[in-house]
Amino acid sequence: MLEIKDLHAGVADKDILKGINISVKAGEVHAIMGPNGSGKSTLASVITGKEEFEVTKGELLFEGEDISELDPEERAHKGLFLSFQYPVEIPGVSVTNFIKTAINENRKAKGLEDMPASEMLKMIKEKADLLEIDRKFLSRSLNESFSGGEKKRNEIFQMAMLEPKLAILDETDSGLDIDALKIVANGVNKLKSKDNAVIVITHYQRLLDYIVPDYVHVLLNGKIVKSGTKELAYELEERGYDWIKEEVKLA
């Protein structure tokens, strides 16, 4: 589904990603971990097309197609989704209106008519129930005066409604207490299927207790320096990153 080969990227002549290689298949969950400043959020931004980052070398393939020149909305239409670490507030635009617009733009890109209102309302109700979201929440302005947990749950609600092929969760666990974390993780787990894939970017192993990854990758100074199973996440929790830095130095 996603194939990244020797990807180099940066911003304003500063190299941040220095040769990323990763392959994500349908049905898989990949976790990307690493200390601050290692390039995790940059990788998410480059995959989804944030304009200030420039790809200088390598391949970025989504379902076999080179997407490195596509605009963010074109990538979204193809089935990419990014859950933001810091979701922005949009006063005056309700959660429901925002999601209706996003879904219909996706449909328009595929040459489809707008989703009928009755179908849209039925879907909103089903997904809100799935994620234990109060209906009143849906009429509020997007992210305005939302708690950290509400913002993150809203991101997962958008993911549920848009049904992306590949969802990237950029530090969805940051700022969440354990109850909010469980609700968000439970939502992600309910949405996982053999036809979609998830990349989870996180500092901490605790999220991976609830969203269990098939693979864990350690990003350090713009490179994936170690990959393994969930056990690698436990080892990082216990030992930190210094031992990996030493390993990289010795290699």
Concise structural overview:
Keywords: ATP-binding, Nucleotide-binding. One of its GO terms (molecular function) is ATP hydrolysis activity. By secondary structure, the chain is of the alpha/beta class.
Describe the structure in your own words.
- One of its GO terms (molecular function) is ATP binding.
- It holds the Pfam family ABC_tran.
- Belongs to the ABC transporter superfamily. Ycf16 family.
- The protein has 251 residues and is α/β, with parallel strands linked by helices.
- The protein has 9 helices and 12 strands.
- It has a single domain (2-250), classed as P-loop containing nucleotide triphosphate hydrolases (Rossmann fold, 3-Layer(aba) Sandwich), CATH 3.40.50.300.
- Helix 7 links the parallel strand 9 (166-170) and strand 10.
- The model has no long low-confidence stretch (mean pLDDT 91).
